[in-house]
Amino acid sequence: MKHLKLYFLILIATTLPGITLVFAQKETKAFYSKDDFYKVKKFDTHIHINTEQTAFIQLAKADNFQFLDIVDDRPFGLPMAEQQKIAFLHLKTYPEQMKVATTFPVKGFDDPDWAVLTINNLKNSIREGARTVKIWKNIGMDLRDKNGKFVMLDDPRLQPVFEFLVKNKIPLIGHNGEPRDCWLPLDQMTFSKEYYGSHPEYHMFLHPEYPSYEQHIAARDNLLKTYPDLKFVGAHLGSLEWSLDELAKRLDLFPNMRVDLSRITNLQLHTLRDHARTRSFFMKYQDRLIYGSDRAVNTTDDPEKLKKGIHEAWFRDWVFFTSADRITLPGFGDLIGLQLPVNVIDKIYYKNAENWLSESAGLKF
Length: 365
What we know:
Elements: E1 8-16, E2 19-26, E3 42-49, H1 55-62, E4 65-70, H2 80-93, E5 98-102, H3 114-128, E6 132-135, H4 138-141, H5 159-167, E7 172-174, H6 193-198, H7 213-226, E8 232-234, H8 235-238, H9 244-253, E9 257-260, H10 264-273, H11 275-284, E10 289-290, E11 295-297, H12 303-322, E12 326-329, E13 333-336, H13 342-358
Parallel strand pairs: 3-4, 3-11, 4-5, 5-6, 6-7, 7-8, 8-9, 9-10
Antiparallel strand pairs: 1-2, 12-13
Helix pairs in contact: 10-11
């Protein structure tokens, strides 16, 4: 008995003739440890699977992760139709492990029947099992109408699609614009100097003829004002990765807005600069924050290397959120992990995603 671990707290002990009654309750822990990584059920809401290979899915099982496979209408890499084919192929085989986010193409936007065809295609995707819809940065940064004008997220011609989503309580994921770095001079950037320095064609500071960062955020905000009942998830910290204050303003203004956390380096920089304030942000908005890593999973000749890289990234994020360990942010310095309480970790790593993705379950058209 003396070697029994102290997992039980004695609440009441009463003695009857010859009998001792003991009532016990399992001790609850305040924080998770590194060892709990494998034990705790988790959900990554930002994954892009571009292969029929299953190494990633096997890793997700081993690491106790479910995930959302997101389909994008992007002009590079695997075409949207192929992404979606792969997503539904995996969904049929691993329905307990994953969910799917569909999207819609903007090709033919000026055609008079574009909205009707788009909605019909979304219905078909929901029938096949998609739980949510993703819009990508091509709306606002690439799509132009027949007059050469950029189509922004609050364009009235998109209204039928958003009205369909609201009516059927289908959540929308929004990747709107780029990180604010994209519109800054190289010497004012945080994490993007190397990329935009090597790809000036994508560096919006050099292209003032394109919509500004502020225009992208305003268009997104206008959309949420127009449709207050829209269940919206802002990808990449709601495109406000540079300021937790600006993000907090939107979370206060739009009660149906959530954000995924797939800008971990920005979160670590906020933590390095003001640990208490960053931790307070997580405590205040714990019901609105959803873990996501934005991992792309491509065909590989070395599946073990792929699994190792993703596992290590997932584990580093776990350490950042759950512990008070010292963490190095390359180029900036050392910070201390947020060590969020168990109930907060359970929300951002699973419960918030579960609640969000269950809202469109069982829809029939």
